[in-house]
């Protein structure tokens, strides 16, 4: 599977533009993490890109979310490692995070929400001027973008990253695709 095929499949299954943007942002951070750790950038990037592909098909039913997604990406030709990371990013199934890829996706997923929320409260609503220091500050404000699970983001420690570095790397990665996100 290549990126174009992955994107085609997302277009066929996800209408909500913000959800597609979330998946693009997750891809960007996963690629940056793969480069940081000398891992397979395509594999990590496509895992991030595809991780919520079933979100509309499952209509928000967390009992099937990510199970269906894992099956779908297998059909698209994703590796078992990718399917596993996608499956266990939803804690509901009780499948433990095993590989570095599993853990990277798990902590990246909520970081995108925090970064995008921090962008949207800026007067210009642009990623370009957003500083890592203000994302770090927002991280500590528990009521800000409360859906972006802080404990989950902090699990970056499990892949060997300090929170500060994770936020810096994540912000730079998302800023790199600002035009695609319209932010
Ligand atoms: Fe997600």
Keywords for this entry:
binds fe (ii) ion; mainly alpha; 183 residues; single chain
Quick structural summary:
This protein is mainly alpha-helical and 183 residues long.
Query: How far from one another are the termini?
Result: 28 Å
Q: Can you count the beta strands? A: 0
Beta-strand portion reads: under 5%
Structural class: mainly alpha
The ligands found in this model are: fe (ii) ion
Strand and helix order: HHHHHHHHHH
What is the number of helical segments per DSSP (H or I, 4+ residues)? 10
Rg from alpha-carbon coordinates: 15 Å
Show unreliable segments.
Answer: none
Largest sheet: none
Give helix % range.
Answer: 55-70%
Give the averaged pLDDT, no decimals. Answer: 96
Tell me the overall shape.
globular
Mind explaining what this structure looks like?
- This protein is mainly α and 183 residues long.
- The chain contains 10 helices and no strands.
- Helix 2 (17-36) crosses helix 9, helix 3 (41-50) packs across helix 5 (80-88) and helix 5 (80-88) packs across helix 6 (100-120).
- The longest helix has 21 residues, at 100-120.
- The radius of gyration is 15 Å and the shape is globular.
- It starts with a helix and ends with a helix.
- The mean pLDDT is 96.
- It binds fe (ii) ion.
- The site of fe (ii) ion has 5 residues, from helix 2.
